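User: Teach me something about this protein's shape.
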Amino acid sequence: MLLTITTRVAEPDILVVEIEGRILLGRECTHVEDTVVKAIDEGARNIVVDLAGVRQIDSSGLGIITLCFGKMSKAGGRFYLAGAHGVVLEILKMTHLDSVIPVSATADEACSR
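Assistant: First, the predicted structure itself:
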């Protein structure tokens, strides 16, 4: 399993994008962007990307997440990361992406912001 993406509505106006696996360079990495862009195009203005199931991320994955954040910001919405742990959380902190994109411990916590 490289990457699995599921979506669910947590609140009437919050879409949670749950990702499992690895967000690495390759064709599957673009599925994250495709999912978020489709949600934005369909009117989503609050998206929480749940990284609890992500075991590994590289610079391409960080780039995709940053791109999605930018697209949501441009659309006037809010974009959160949640559930990052282990090496994924370390990378978010090391790159200071956690100071640009709000990061919560859990998706539920991000939804309550």
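Now, about its shape. The first helix runs from residue 30 to 41. The chain is about 35% helix and 35% strand. If you'd like, I can walk through any region in more detail.
User: That's plenty for now, thanks!
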